[in-house]
TrEMBL record:
UniProt protein name: V-type proton ATPase subunit a
InterPro entries, alphabetized: V-ATPase_116kDa_su, V-type_ATPase_116kDa_su_euka
Transmembrane segments: 422-445, 466-484, 547-565, 585-602, 631-654, 756-777
Predominant cellular place of this UniProt entry's protein: membrane
Functional summary from the UniProt entry: Essential component of the vacuolar proton pump (V-ATPase), a multimeric enzyme that catalyzes the translocation of protons across the membranes. Required for assembly and activity of the V-ATPase.
A single MF term (Gene Ontology): proton-transporting ATPase activity, rotational mechanism
GO biological process, one term: vacuolar acidification
Localization annotation: Membrane
The keyword Lyase is annotated on this UniProt entry: no
Coiled-coil portions: 99-126
Membrane topology: Multi-pass membrane protein
């Protein structure tokens, strides 16, 4: 044990040692100190104002200002996106901008953009109306020409032709002339012309017919192009219509229906000369408006491009400032209101770096008083912090998804880095499929920098985050595939010739009668001659089932051993004596013995029935084993191991609760007299974080029930967890059989036809099945099963997972979602 203690500590085995520190920061250097700590990213502040709402905190106004600036920056970013522009940083060095200056600049930019957008929208609406008017003039002119023979020459157009849009009435002098009262025949035929969406025209016509009782003539014609609707700013198909009617009442009704259906009405003169004059004037106005709109868009784009050069820097600056003030709101003012008091957790190795950052903040802010850095004592459990890199981070995330390790608890991620991809490969063993996964992993790793800077989708982001997990899974899959001798389910003579040959010279019945071994065993992996033979499935089933049990017992033993190191590290001798020892005895007396029998049977080539041995070890422990005997003294050993297993159960159950009760009684008797000399006055002199918690009442029945549940769970779990590892055999068999089916029943079947089209179709179906079923669904299935084996069968032997993560205040951890 002394040798183990002298070994250097593993970085990832236990979390970094933490300490609780108190900072007393002068007000004049508080902002700069917190900023420097944010750049360092090694201090997690505690919220000392939990009892206050966000609106009652000291720096709430500064947070509101930063939130308002974030809103303006998001508005500018949206405008850039709508304009189809990108915000790229300026190649020239940019001068630093003060927060107050930035606030003024953003106010000016927002006001300017809103004003430009308003002018552009107004001009665009006018342009759209003129465009509609041009369409109405063109189409309605055709209607007048076609209906001229049916209308008397002396009939004049209606003087009160209405233009619904008030804005447009101010844009054209001719339109104002049209709206003036003039000579008209009140008893003649009148008309109203306009434009309406194509989707509404049938209902519109039906409503007009019913309202006027059929006393109207409705003509319509589609527009040549889609028109931008002024109300919705979307391109829609529209219909130009002209309604001929008679009477004032009909006019009023038709105008109301037009308004209800959102139809835009425009005055069209009957006279051809006036209509042509009005068309020329409209075209002239359209040309002028196009020029004005293009100039406005160029001006707006130029302004947006100049802002885009600074946008990323400004957003980062505002994001940082808001984070600094949010952190300052977690600090308390002292009684003099001249200093801020904060508390937080930091790793011990970061103490010097934090002190240097605080000293730099004092110097840069020209403060007369330095920041006081004080290490405090705390009974609260510190946060858990593991230093990880690109490779180990994904495995740590897998473990943390189950639960964050308790402070200084043994970290399963150390072993998960190897055992997780290996157990995956046991279920996915095929070196052809493994190579496909390897190519995908290498592609993600090769484009790591490019993909890391992009915003990926949820699935792609998950795949990119686990690129190194995928790399190791693919390498282990290639290794296990070489052992299984499967390349897309096809065996190869990679490591020499087979150890078996046919019974006869023709090999005609080699797959039914069997093969004869004529030389040494195949040097590595499964002999390719097993493929397709009559004993292939029984042989591989037996091999993979026994192998799964061996792997399972080994991993569960590793979990129990780690519980010993946890108990030894935390100085809990009770867990070692009354939990670790009986658990090791129980598991290995039964299933460790089974693993031993498997290895002996493999080495000796015995035909013993291990099912019979294990069943009758419980039912008839003193019965003679007969032909199932594997070694001398096996019957006696079985009885001894069975007794050990029976003894281990009460050993786990009874001693620990009674010893805890005795220790509590002794501790209580020692404290009962000392408690008489204490007073509440002394308790108030210490801060809350340094006070000792009140001793909880010891409930023996609760402790005993908890221990009983734990013991029963382990005993039953030893059986169920061992059986759970048989999923390694089941999924490996399923993967192999699926590969065989796709190869033989799809690819070989198609290749048997002397037809290029059938062969290409077969190859396409085989590729599709391999990519989507074997490489995607089977990969996901094996991944989830490996995840379950680690979370349930392995980690429940030693891992409590009830800690909380170390989340330091760091600018690097800020992202755009926090704006």
């Amino acid at each position: 044990m002394e040798y183990i203690d002298r070994l250097p500590a593993m970085d990832l085995m236990r979390s970094e040692k933490m300490m609780l520190v108190q900072l007393i920061i002068p007000v004049e250097s508080a902002h700069r100190a917190v900023s420097y700590l944010g750049e360092l990213g090694l201090l997690q502040f505690r919220d000392l104002n939990n009892d206050k709402s966000p609106f009652q905190r000291t720096f709430v106004n500064q947070v509101k200002r930063c939130a308002e600036m974030s809103r303006k920056l998001r508005f500018i970013k949206d405008q850039l996106h709508k304009a189809g522009l990108t915000s790229s940083p300026s190649p020239a060095p940019q001068p630093d901008t003060d927060l107050e200056e930035l606030e003024i600049q953003l106010e000016e930019h927002e006001h300017g953009l809103i004003e430009m957008n308003a002018n552009s929208e107004k001009l665009q609406q006018t342009y759209n109306e003129l465009l509609e008017f041009k369409m109405v003039l063109q189409k309605a002119g055709d209607f007048h020409l076609s209906t001229g023979s049916h209308v008397a020459a002396q009939e004049t157009e209606l003087a009160e032709n209405i233009h619904v849009s008030d804005d447009y009435a101010e844009t054209s002098s001719l339109l104002e002339q049209e709206m003036l009262p003039g000579p008209s025949n009140q008893t003649g035929v009148r008309f109203i012309s306009g434009i309406i969406c194509k989707s509404k025209v049938l209902r519109f016509e039906r409503m007009l017919f019913r309202t006027t009782r059929g006393n109207m003539l409705f003509n319509q014609a589609p527009t040549d192009d889609q028109i931008l609707d002024p109300a919705t700013n979307e391109l829609v198909e529209k219909i130009v219509f002209v309604v001929f009617f008679s009477g004032e009442q009909a006019r009023v009704k038709i105008l109301k229906i037009c308004e209800a259906f959102g139809a835009n009405c425009y005055p069209v003169p009957e006279d051809t000369i006036r209509r042509r004059q009005m068309t020329r004037e409209v075209l002239s106005h359209l040309s002028d408006l196009e020029t004005t709109l293009e100039a406005g868009l160029r001006h707006r784009d130029k302004a947006l491009i100049s802002i885009g050069f600074h946008l990323a820097k400004w957003m980062n600056m505002v994001r940082r400032e808001k984070a600094v003030y949010d952190t300052l709101n977690m600090l308390n003012f002292d009684v003099t209101k001249k200093c801020l008091v904060g508390e937080g957790w930091c790793p011990i190795f970061a103490k010097t770096k934090i002190q240097e950052a605080l000293q730099r903040a004092t110097t840069d802010s020209n403060s007369q008083v330095g920041v006081i850095f004080h290490v405090m004592h705390s009974v609260e459990s510190p946060p858990t912090y593991f230093k990880t890199n690109h490779l180990t981070n994904a495995y740590q995330e897998i473990v943390d998804a189950y639960g964050v390790a308790k402070y200084q608890e043994a970290n399963p991620a150390v072993y998960t880095i190897i055992t997780f991809p290996f157990l995956f490969a046991v279920m996915f063993g095929d070196w052809g499929h493994g190579i496909c996964l390897l190519l995908g992993a290498l592609f993600l790793i090769a484009r790591e920098k490019k993909l890391g800077s992009q915003k990926l989708g949820s699935f792609m982001e998950m795949l990119f985050g686990g690129r190194y997990v995928l790399l190791l899974m693919s390498l282990f899959s290639i290794y296990c595939g070489l052992i299984y001798n499967e390349f897309f389910s096809v065996p190869f003579h990679i490591f020499g010739s087979s150890a078996y040959r046919c019974r006869d010279t023709t090999c005609s019945d080699s797959r039914t009668v069997g093969l004869v071994k004529y030389q040494d065993t195949y040097p590595f992996g499964v002999d390719p001659s097993w493929r397709g033979s009559r004993s292939e499935l029984p042989f591989l089933n037996s091999l993979k089932m026994k192998m799964s049990i061996l792997f399972g017992i080994a991993q569960m033993n590793l979990g129990i051993i780690l519980s010993y190191f946890n108990a030894r590290y935390f100085g809990n001798s009770l867990d070692i004596k009354y939990q670790f020892v009986p658990q090791m005895i129980f598991l290995n007396s039964l299933f460790g013995y089974l693993s031993l029998l498997i290895i002996i049977k493999w080495c000796s080539g015995s035909q013993a029935d291990l099912y019979h041995v294990m069943i009758y070890m419980f039912l008839s422990p003193f019965e003679d084993l007969g032909e199932n005997k594997l070694f001398w003294g096996q019957s006696v050993l079985q009885v001894i191991l069975l007794l050990f297993a029976v003894i281990a159960v009460p050993w786990m159950l009874f001693p620990k609760p009674f010893i805890l009760k005795r220790l509590h009684t002794e501790r209580f008797q020692g404290r009962s007299y000392a408690a008489l000399g204490t007073s509440d006055i002394y308790d108030d002199e210490e801060p809350d974080s340094a006070r000792e918690p009140h001793l909880e009442e010891f409930n023996f029945s609760e402790v005993f029930v908890h221990q009983m549940i734990h013991a029963i769970e382990f005993v039953l779990g030893a059986v169920s967890n061992t059986a759970s590892y048989l999923r390694l055999w089941a999924l490996s068999l399923a993967h192999s059989e699926l590969s065989t089916v796709f190869y033989e029943k799809v690819l070989l079947l198609a290749w048997g036809y002397d037809n290029l089209v059938i062969r290409l179709v077969g190859l396409a179906v085989f590729s599709f099945a391999t990519a989507f079923i074997l490489l995607m669904m089977e990969t996901l299935s094996a991944f989830l099963h490996a995840l379950r084996l680690h979370w349930v069968e392995f980690q429940n032997k030693f891992y409590s997972g009830d800690g909380y993560k170390f989340r330091p205040f760091s600018f690097a951890a800020l992202n755009e979602d926090e704006d």
